[in-house]
Design goal:
Blueprint: E1 2-3, E2 14-17, E3 25-29, H1 46-55, E4 65-67, H2 73-83, H3 85-90, H4 92-104, H5 110-122, H6 139-159, H7 165-183, E5 188-192, E6 197-201, E7 209-213, E8 216-220, H8 224-228, E9 235-240, E10 243-248, H9 268-277, E11 283-286, E12 295-299, H10 308-321
Parallel strand pairs: 1-4, 2-3, 2-4, 6-9
Antiparallel strand pairs: 5-6, 7-8, 9-10, 10-12, 11-12
Helix pairs in contact: 1-2, 1-4, 2-4, 2-6, 4-5, 5-7
Length: 336
């Protein structure tokens, strides 16, 4: 099988990995919402779904082209398994771990996190060894070029991440620092299992630094891999002094096979209520349940005027009583 850029797939019979089908897609292998992937092949990452497909010849389709409409680690790992199944099979557990690190910020082997960091660095215009012109293209062309180039790089990364140290060591050190803070109890995580909620409390003196998620650059005081690897809860409330932010993790946007995260609740109403009381000059914003990792957060002020204990209580109540507002699964979620 060969990789064909999404914009060039045209009338070619194809398989789509980790993205949206086209008119001539014969099979989608994706954990994306409502993807239509056969339930018998379901898994948590699209890469794991690809291996399930490769293991079951009865599901194989007559297509020699594979593509994806966006670039990220899970898409790259899954497409590598399609175009070079033998190489991917030699590293099956590791490549699935890389996909989980890229999508969910969790990992079993530190090597997987380092590979994810390396791939993100290659896709970062400021850090990438690739020509700057690559990142000046329209997104579709840039994503295609990244696939073409990194399908050549990834097999070597799977063999050994050490030669790529310059691309992963800074972020790996930041991850190590965050993990040490958790080990020492300076960052704590309090789980509310019945709400699928984890409350992380951070020291006030922690400063933000750049991290990568989904090959995108973000800012965080604690590396998300460190937090995500410590809790399965998919609603994450981060508290730091008088700063508060609720994050819905990516697991709640996709079709998970190993477990069902609590359905997302629309927090727009709570944001409006908080704005009636907020006197810091900031504005509470909820990004929307359809975003891949939406947040309820305060814009325009670093801290809230609302007492943190009150905010936590009201958020917990909203998560407890709010109706499901997002369903990625092919079947409907029963409503209470």
């Amino acid at each position: 099988m060969r990789f064909v850029p999404y914009t060039e797939i045209g009338s070619i019979p194809n398989v789509i990995v980790d993205g949206a089908r086209t008119t001539n897609t014969l099979l989608t292998l994706s954990h994306w919402p409502k993807s239509g992937t056969p339930a018998q092949l379901g898994d948590d990452t699209s890469t794991a779904i690809v291996f399930n497909y490769l293991d079951r010849p009865a599901f194989h389709v007559d297509a020699d082209a594979v593509s994806n409409n966006h670039f990220d680690e899970d898409g790259l790992a899954g497409i590598l398994a399609m175009v070079d199944a033998a190489a991917a099979e030699r590293h099956r557990d590791l490549i699935i771990d890389v996909a989980q690190a890229g999508d969910f910020g969790i990992y079993k082997r530190r090597e997987a996190a380092r590979i994810a960091f390396t791939l993100a660095a290659y896709a970062d215009p400021e850090a990438s060894p690739f020509p700057k012109a690559l990142f000046e293209q329209p997104y579709a062309a840039m994503a295609a070029d990244l696939y073409i180039r990194l399908l050549e790089v990834l097999p070597g990364l799977l063999d050994s991440v050490e030669p790529y140290r310059a691309l992963w060591e800074v972020e790996d050190a930041r991850l190590a620092t965050s993990e040490a803070l958790l080990e020492r109890g300076q960052i704590t995580i309090d789980e509310r299992d019945e709400l699928d909620l984890a409350i992380a409390r951070l020291p006030e003196d922690l400063i933000r630094y750049p991290v990568h998620r989904f090959t995108q650059l973000r800012m965080a005081e604690c590396h998300p891999f460190a937090l995500h690897n410590r809790t399965l809860r998919t609603r994450l409330l981060i508290l730091q002094g008088r700063r508060a932010e609720l994050q819905y993790r990516y697991e709640g946007w996709v079709q998970m096979a190993s477990r069902r995260p609590a359905p997302r609740v629309d927090l727009s109403g709570l944001a409006n209520e908080l704005n009636q009381e907020e006197s810091s000059g900031g504005l509470w914003v909820f990004d929307g349940v359809d975003q891949i990792t939406p947040r309820l957060h305060l814009e325009g002020s670093p801290t809230t005027s609302i007492p943190i204990d009150s905010l936590v209580t009201r958020l917990e109540q909203q998560l407890r009583i709010g109706p499901p507002a997002w369903n990625p699964y092919d079947e409907e979620i029963p409503r209470p």
